[in-house]
Amino acid sequence: MKCCLVTAAVATDFEDPDDAATRQVREVAAEPQLGILTLAAVLDQRGMAPRIFNLDRAYYEYLVDQRSRSVAGFARWAASRIASSGADVFGFGTICSSYPVTLRIAGHLKREAPGCDIVLGGPQASIVATETLAAFPFVDFILRGEADQTLPLLLDELSGKRRLSAVPGLSWRSPSGIQRNADAPLIEGLDSLPLPAYGLTGELDGAGGASLELGRGCPFGCTFCSTNDFFRRRFRLKSPERMLADMRAIASRFGIRSFRLIHDMFTVDRRRVAAFCDRLIQSGEEFAWSTSARTDCVDEELLGLMARAGCQGLFFGVETGSPRLQKVIEKGLDLDRARAAIDTTARLGMSNTVSLIAGFPEETWDDLRETMDIYMHTARHPGSHPQLNVLAPVAGTPIHARYQHQMVLEELCSDMSHQGRIHNQADRDLIRRYPEIFPNFYLLPTPGLDRAACLELREFLLAATARLRWLLVALHRSSTGILDVFLLWRRHRLALHPGLSGGSLRHYYIQPVFRRDFVGFVRRKVARFDSPAVRALLDYQEAFLKAETSDARLPRKGCTPARRLRASDKPVRARHVHVLQLDWDIQAVIDSLKAGQPAAVRQPVFYRTGLTPDDDIRLIRISPLLARALETCNGRRTVQACVTDLADCFAGSTTLRRYAAGYLLKNLLAENLIECRR
Ligand code: SF4
Description:
The protein has 28 helices and 21 strands. The chain is α/β, with parallel strands linked by helices. Among the domains are: about 5-180, Response regulator (Rossmann fold); about 530-675, no CATH class. Helix 13 links the parallel strand 11 (about 260) and strand 12 (about 290-295). It starts with a strand and ends with a strand. The mean pLDDT is about 95. Bound molecules: iron/sulfur cluster.
């Protein structure tokens, strides 16, 4: 019996090929799906030689590399590619955000290969198994919960006597109706699982990092969280020896020394976290890793040990800054302790991803104001990634059970469920028809908030934190808080662009026009946020926008990646290099904001812009000489003319001065700060 496993899609949220092609989307889509890869390894051990079909790779092949095709045809195209594997059984992994497209593909597949068996597994299908079998006759089986032991059992039965009632965790259709076998036992000894079958897919070839499963299950019971149902709140960890062996195996096979260690909540058991860190330190391997933690399960000593063991990043789900809501959602975090954990993590050189949620039914503006305070507290650490998501009522969660009859469907839904600008119409039709299967695309009632403002707040923060982080921090400090600044801005934005909503609103915030509009808004209202830090950062933003506009007009025709300058070449600043002259020491302003003491130092300073490894813009202080040299390279003057101009900046004989000016230009070229027009 031949089996083909199909991953859950991530990139299919993005129907526009340009959106799908961004580095951020490609990175998320390239994440190996550990569930499917572990199942493949289990089947491989049994000699079943499974195939894996990666839906994200297929989507890129279909959409980005072959732009002539319509997105609407992807499901049918993918189904025919999957069918061509000739398998007898197709096992689909499922997650809530791409469940509609997974089901559409499965439907087309059944039409292409009517004799095949279609099995769904993973978190989403497990939770809505009975509803899915009732609504979609082409789905034959749903294997609920952890399938590492039950999938081989099911495949044995499908190739043998088909005693389906003997497979734990299986939901299936019998002549008398839908059957739901008893749950399968959880896998207690996770060390018994094989290393995910990375070799089958080639996902780690040339990759900078790898994901590895560190354990499963979280014992807490937050009312919005879906992991409780799937792993039944049973906390389990792989042993330190096993983790180390897997990391070493990946390092030796793929040359990878950086790992994302996946666990819903690693830091539940302090003793075991310490044992893991001690083992890594003893090994002397110096692997880099990141993982998830609760802020009340770590302290300075443990964080220090984690940092020494190679931990470089922590994901903290703080969810809300409101002590009242912490109780309502049964998260129960002490928020002072959360702030301290965020600060300590940053001080130890680790990055923070702090996840926050807006849109709880019981939430008020005051609660959201407190959440924004945690957001901005995190944002003032440069390596941090604060996130605000709008709540999605995921099936199987207590919050969904309570509010399922009050959900509303709007053009934009939670970004946890859909991040694209356009929502596929066929998916929307399914979502509208089956709210019980796809509730995560709906929104909850929020009588104490304006839902449209919450959705826009998320888009605003995502864009503004990426491009205007320190201006946001300064505004937060010099006002009643960033939420009030946003509400004021939103009134301004509605007057400027009244017709934006849904996908067009999302699009607006990722365009350069948002930055210009927002900087213009702050300039108009600057008296309201009167602080030197706001003025300094506003000047910087305006200078940057001006330089960007004027540099866009520099001639670039004939630019070539030259290694040497010829006298007749016309050097021009590289596209990402703008020269700014400011009256403020911006680094001093940022340092004071980081330290929580808004201040600004007036002092004329030259800067140039550069790119971070993530292609973000950074500001680099430069000497007046370097500023002048870069300004001279405007694509209109020859090297000879630039040398003549710059020679004035040096002392000595004419020959010596010209030599120094030429040497300076050569260095600019070597550092990729200028290009050459020939
Ligand atoms: S939100 Fe985090 S702490 Fe709460 S149940 Fe889910 S994984 Fe556990």
